[in-house]
Design brief:
The chain has 152 residues and is mainly alpha-helical. Helix content is 56%, strand content 0%. It starts with 23 loop residues before the first helix and ends with a helix.
């Protein structure tokens, strides 16, 4: 028998992979969507069907119909307010557009020079010009030491 193979199959996918099987998050999404549809249907039936129809179906215990409108409204308002609070907290945590922190981050050379002097007194950034002068013999080691001592 001749074995079929995929010509354009990407690397890393073996022939043993069952491409038709659903993933776990797909199953969870399906179950959640079905649950939401059933809960919405139950809410609509509970809110709008007359009581004697529910008694004919054998349903005698159910919450007060007074809760049919406020509970979903409270849930939706809570979700909307939660999203608003989340967005507001992100705005509070973000510096304004006119702040220099948006242009110069933690790893900008000017910030590194300031932090290096405070955090690591033995380590400093040496400018490329000084290194070039030193390696080309235009500057002696003593003058490099003097320059570095002024930076510390």
């Amino acid at each position: 028998m001749e074995e079929r193979c995929l010509v354009n199959k990407p690397r890393g996918i073996s022939d043993a992979d069952d491409l038709g099987s659903p993933k776990l998050w797909e199953v969870y999404g399906f179950i959640i969507s079905i649950t939401i549809v059933v809960a919405t249907g139950a809410l609509i039936i509970w809110a709008y069907v007359p009581e004697h129809w529910l008694h004919n179906l054998g349903i005698y215990y159910y919450p007060s119909r007074y809760q049919a409108l406020p509970v979903p409204t409270y849930v939706l308002v809570t979700i909307i307010l939660g999203i608003g609070v989340y967005i507001g907290l992100n705005f509070l945590a973000t510096p304004p557009p006119t702040s220099l922190k948006t242009m110069f981050g933690t790893y900008h050379p000017l910030q590194i020079d300031l932090h290096m002097k405070m955090l690591l007194p033995g380590m400093i950034l040496i400018s490329p010009g000084i290194i070039t002068f030193f390696f080309h013999g235009l500057m002696q080691m003593n003058s490099v030491r003097n320059y570095l001592m002024t930076m510390i």
